[in-house]
Amino acid sequence: MDGLLEEARAGDALFRPVRAGNPFEETVERLLQAIKLGVVAPGERLPSERDLAARLSVSRVTLREAIRALTEAGYVESRRGRYGGTFVNERLPKPRRVGPRKLAKELGGGLDDALILRSALEVGAAEAAAARDLGPAERAHLERCLADTAAAKLADYRRMDSRLHLAIAEVSGSPSLTTAVADVRMRLNALLDAIPLLERNIEHSDKQHQAVIDAILAADPPAARQAMQEHLAGTAALLRAFLT
Asked: Which ranges form a coiled coil (predicted)?
């Protein structure tokens, strides 16, 4: 039950009402966020159409069009019957691979913008999480996401890494911050997908993740802030090395 409560919290942040201007496009974006950031894992079922439409404040026709688009793109499948619904595919489409030079040209000044925004949001999230009196469910949620990331296969690592960072934002106590972290993480993943996953870097990243979570669980905001700053600085250096 505790796990369900934590997933509901993430869903509250991602499945928020869409803007009135382009409900179809934003509905697709929200559903993709939930899938790509690991809130709804491969093989798991999305919330019901009735629930999703209400939470996103869109018509069921718009929601069905968005689900149809994701089905055609290979992200979800619909199943009939008593235990039917819309399920995330076990195998997700591979991200678009773009050469570093081409991506840097497409981004313009977007790399520094994304990295600065990420640092401001995620360092603050770690500090805020460490300053709260976390309940047993929140502590277990962080530990579970940490363990899942450390045990992830190479193909799943980026998604589980995203889920861990989103979990830190979730336990900060600010749904708005969780939403902002999810948005910037989607931008960051587009950058990370353009560079290789390095085993040594993953090992170092796992140690830094442990330091961040240890500081949060120890209720030590300065240590959580410093650990997250060091972790993000390493990722930023790697991205700049490959993309500039």
From this structure: none
Tell me the pLDDT of the chain (244 aa) as tens digits: 344 444 445 566 778 888 767 889 889 988 998 998 888 989 999 999 999 999 999 999 999 999 999 999 999 999 988 788 999 999 888 766 656 556 655 555 578 888 999 999 999 999 999 999 999 999 999 999 999 999 998 888 989 999 999 999 999 999 899 999 998 988 888 788 777 777 888 899 999 999 999 999 999 999 999 999 999 998 888 888 777 6
Q: Which domains does the chain have, with CATH numbers?
A: 2-88 (1.10.10.10), 100-243 (1.20.120.530)
DSSP β-bridge partners for residue 88: 76
CB burial of residue 202 (10 Å; 0-12, 13-18, 19+)? middle
CA–CA separation, 216 vs 227, rounded Å?
10
What is the rounded distance in angstroms from the CA atom of residue 113 to the CA atom of residue 40?
28
Coil/strand/helix, residue 76: strand
- DSSP label at 109? T
For residue 111, give the 3-state DSSP assignment.
helix
Q: How far is the C-alpha of 159 from the C-alpha of 93, rounded, in Å? A: 13
Residue 241 region, left (φ>0) first, then alpha (ψ -120 to 50), else beta? alpha
This prediction's pTM: 0.83
